[in-house]
Amino acid sequence: MSDAAARPSALPTSASAPDALDQGGKTPPLPSLQRAWSVVAILSLAAIVSYIDRQVLNLLVEPIKADLGLSDVEISVLQGFSFALLYAVLAIPLAWVADRSNRKWVILGGLVCWSGATFMSGFASGFAILFVARMLIGIGEATLSPAGFSMIADYFRKARLPAALSVFTGSGFIGSGLALVIGGALYAALEAAGPVTTALGTFQPWQMTFFGIAMLSVPLFVLIVLFVREPARQPDALAPAAGEEPSPFEILGFLTAHARVYFPLFFGFSCFAAAQFGVGAWAPSFFIRSHGWTQLEVGQALGPVVMATGPLGVIAGGFLAERLLLRGVRDATLKLSMAAIVVALPFAAAFPLVEGGGLALALLAAVLAFGTVPFGAGVATFPLITPNRMRAQVIAVYLLVANLLGYSAGPILVAWLTDAVFADPAAINLSLAIAAPAVMAAGLVLIAAALGPYRLMLEAAENPEN
């Protein structure tokens, strides 16, 4: 999943910040529309660069394994768990910091952290250094979504905000594809040049690729410093007073009281995310091992497919769910998500097993297009049944589960099957054919179990007197 399903868009902006009103007691004026969209463009570029730094590892699996002697399971831990651990856990406290300080400098601090950690990856001589580097990338990138959403919300009036936020959100998928396109081209050029010897030692092409990718953040840093201004925080009449904020125990009690709805949805949608992350993490290695593609060929072929299908599934899912809800289909967000996964599941089982890389890529495109629909439609389920004053915190709990389970379990399951069950790196096609469909099926069972209780919750929310 790319992070369309895992962006903390519902984290609260600071409605009661001291600069919400100017000294005259008036609402501060909004920046010009031109300036506002220029900030969205720069922050979207930051999201693209962050995804390139995050995802380029997936393209370099084979040379890293060869040089460092790592197993597929160790690689999967680097792809998912090491990154997601602090990315998920720290997103909420970093959002708290962003709500109470200068968001521009929060983002710049995160940029320095994640790009520095990407550069650090090039010095890796074993698993430990790469693990620490991936954790630092997670910490740095955990600043961007909460601070970016909060900042954009103070640049636009509410009617224009959804369009601006969708641009920022969708840009991550472009970064996932560009990680393959740019990383593949850069690695191919560096591989042709051979190892580079400096005063610090001899560096392999995959190490030099990390160095080169990290340099993308330098012009981005300059752009943010020069052209992004911290906007005045706009007052929000919808925000509850500080004394009305629910305690963690209230939220836990609410979730427990409605466990038959929330827990299956939390873990069901997280299963869908795990399937997408597992496929995304190992698809480059699949094409290299099973079809003999080079890193350059993977980048040129798979990169554009990821850039096209990811945004298509998320955006289409959101718009379709909206239309169905307007037509009176009350459980549209769940039914649409389930229908899309049912369509994606046979493609997920078939693409690793067919003959020919071109056909496999076409089937994989269907997996990505249909498999990302729940990230646009499914997550919209939670605000429909959650009390207003609990929505941000409940969605934050979901994001924690989705990031930890999705990023970690998906890649690790594929690697475990390859290493422990088949004991053959060439069997990655069998691992993919089993892992993603199995996780998708588990998610379908969980979502189906929540359908009945979900309808009852909707009825109770719409008819509180009952």
- Main β sheet profile: 2 strands, antiparallel
| Weakly predicted, low-confidence segments | 4-23, 237-242
**Helix vs. strand class:** mainly alpha
The run of helices and strands is: HHHHHHHEEHHHHHHHHHHH
User: Could you report the average pLDDT, rounded to the nearest whole number?
Assistant: 86
Count up the helices: 18
CA-atom Rg in angstroms: 22 Å
Quaternary status = single chain
The percentage of residues in β strands lies in: under 5%
Alpha-carbon distance between the two ends: 39 Å
Q: Major sheet: order of its strands?
A: 1-2
Proportion of residues in helical segments: over 70%
**Shape, per Cα inertia axes:** globular
Please provide the count of β strands: 2
Summarize the structure in words.
The protein is mainly α and 466 residues long. Helices cover 74% and strands 1% of the residues. The protein is built from 18 helices and two strands. It has helices at residues 33-59, 61-68, 72-99, 103-121, 127-141, 144-153, 161-193, 205-214, 217-227, 248-257, 259-291, 295-326, 332-350, 357-371, 373-377, 381-385, 391-421, 428-462, and strands at 196-198, 201-203. Strands 1-2 form a two-stranded antiparallel ribbon. The radius of gyration is 22 Å and the shape is globular. The relative contact order is 0.15.
Chain-wise SSE layout:
Layout: H1 33-59, H2 61-68, H3 72-99, H4 103-121, H5 127-141, H6 144-153, H7 161-193, E1 196-198, E2 201-203, H8 205-214, H9 217-227, H10 248-257, H11 259-291, H12 295-326, H13 332-350, H14 357-371, H15 373-377, H16 381-385, H17 391-421, H18 428-462
Antiparallel strand pairs: 1-2
Helix pairs in contact: 1-4, 1-6, 1-7, 1-9, 3-5, 3-6, 3-17, 4-5, 4-6, 4-8, 4-9, 6-7, 7-8, 7-12, 10-11, 11-14, 11-17, 11-18, 12-13, 12-14, 13-14, 13-18, 17-18
